[in-house]
C-alpha cells in the first residue's frame, strides 16, 4: 500500500518523499505528503482567501457569476490535476502550484499590477510573480517559528519558473525579464536557496502553467459573453471556435443561448486538455526522462500544446484582446482603477502613518525604496473592495468602477 493514499507516479514526476526540502527544517507529517502540506498551507493562507474579492479580468458588469481570482485558481487547479494525473505527475504539487500562481496579484486585475509597476519605477518595479514569492516566503505571518509558509523547494521553484527559465546558462535575464532584469525578490531569495533559474520547472509546474492558459481562454469567452462584450457569432472569427459552434448546432439544433455557451466552454476545455495530454505524451516518449530533473534540463517545455492547438490558443487570445481586454467599456473602468492605485500609492508613500499599525514605517528614518516597497506590499494585498474603501477614507471623490 502506498503512503498517504498516493496514486501512481511516473519516474519523471516530482516525488514528495524525495523533496529537496524546506528552507527551515520541519518534522514530516504522518498523514500527508510534503506537497499535500504545501497545498493545504496555501489554501489556509490569508492571501488565498483574499483572491475571492480580487478581479480576474476587469469587465464592466454587476453580478456574482463572473470569475474572480479565487474561482479562476480553482478552475486552474482542476485542469492541472487532470493533466498531471494523465501524465503520471504528482497531482498534489500541480494543484498547489495552480492554487498559488495568482497569490501575488493586485486588486483590479492586470490594471492594478500595471499601475503599481508604474508607481514602483525607480524602486525595482512590481511583478506579480515576484510578489507571490514574497508572500509565501516573507509576508504571510501565521507560524510561530518562521515568516511565510516555508514551502518545499519544488513548490517555490514551480511558483517562480512555471512560465519557463528566467536567465540563460550564463545567468543573463531573458524573455520577460530581458530588459529590466529578474525582480529583486526572486534574486534575493535565490541567493539563500538556489531555485535553478536557468532551467525549466518540473512537469507539475508546467502542467499548472498550461492549465492557466486553458482556463483563461475558456472562462474569458464565458465572461465576455455574459457581459455582452461580444456575441456568439463574433466568435466565428476564430476557426477553432467556429468548428465547435457548428458541432453544437448540428447536435442540438435550437438549443438556447446559455446552454450553447456552456457547451462551447466545455468543448474548449476538453479539446485543449486532450491535446496537451497527447502532445506531452509524445514529447515524454521522445525524451524518456529518468527523473524530474531530466524534465527541468530538457531545454524546452515538455507539457505543451501541439502546433495546431498552440495556434488556436493564440487565435483565441488574439480575439479576446481587442474585443474584451481593450473594449471601450473595460478601458474606461481600467483608467479609473489605475487612478485609485496611483492615488493610494502616492498618499501612503508621503504619509505611511496612514497605513494600519502593522504596516507603518517611520518615513524620517527609512530610505525611500524601503518605504515604497512596504506601500506596494500593502496595496498589492488589498481586495478590490478594500482598495476602494481606503480611497474613500483618504480622498474626497472615489470612482464607482461601474
List the helices and strands and how they pair.
Layout: H1 34-43, H2 46-50, H3 69-87, H4 91-100, H5 109-119, H6 128-139, H7 153-161, H8 184-192, H9 203-226, H10 239-251, H11 257-287, H12 292-296, H13 307-325, H14 328-350, H15 368-380, H16 384-394
C-alpha geometry: globular
Q: What is the percentage of strand-forming residues?
A: under 5%
Structure classification: mainly alpha
What is the number of beta strands?
0
Largest sheet, described in full? none
- The run of helices and strands is HHHHHHHHHHHHHHHH
> Ranges with pLDDT <50 over ≥5 residues?
1-5
What is the radius of gyration? 22 Å
The mean pLDDT is 94
Q: Please report the number of helical segments.
A: 16
Distance between the termini: 56 Å
- Percentage of helical residues? 55-70%
How is this structure best described in words?
The chain has a domain at 206-327. The protein is built from 16 helices and no strands. It has helices at 34-43, 46-50, 69-87, 91-100, 109-119, 128-139, 153-161, 184-192, 203-226, 239-251, 257-287, 292-296, 307-325, 328-350, 368-380, 384-394. Helix 4 crosses helix 9 (203-226).
How would you concisely characterize the structure shown here?
With 402 residues, the protein is mostly helical. It has helices spanning 34-43, 46-50, 69-87, 91-100, 109-119, 128-139, 153-161, 184-192, 203-226, 239-251, 257-287, 292-296, 307-325, 328-350, 368-380, 384-394. The protein has a domain at 206-327.
